[in-house]
Amino acid sequence: MKTSNKITDYSAVLASTYGEHGTPERAKFDEEAYAFYTSQVLLDARKNARLTQAELAKRIGADKTYISRIEKGVMIPSVATFYRVVNALGLSVRLTPA
Fold it and tell me: For residue range 5-58, what is the model confidence (pLDDT) as tens digits?
């Protein structure tokens, strides 16, 4: 198998595929990407805490289906729900300047 040593500018790839920043198409892509990223972070954290979806749901006063939808990236939890999940997993959130 031949590999390429070519460096790819992924900002240009995203712009050509989904539009420049500020366009509705790019905003939709960014929202879906953030939902997926958030879902994977929460899924990994739940598994590391060795909790089932049902156990986590009970801790935050929700049902298993709700946790499943978040973990699949089907829905983005509100900030309040995100913090409830994080706290239920024994984690914390730290905000730092970019």
Answer: 776 788 888 888 888 989 999 999 998 898 899 899 999 999 999 999 999 999
Residue-wise burial string across 63-83, b where 16 or more C-beta atoms lie within 10 A, e elsewhere: eeebbebbbebeebbeeebbe
Assign a CATH topology to domain 11-88.
Answer: 434 Repressor (Amino-terminal Domain) (1.10.260)
Give pTM, 2 decimals. 0.75
Give me the residue spans of the domains in the chain: 11-88
Cα–Cα distance measured from residue 59 to residue 33, given in angstroms and rounded to the nearest whole number: 27
Q: Note whether 86 and 92 are within 8 A (CB).
A: yes
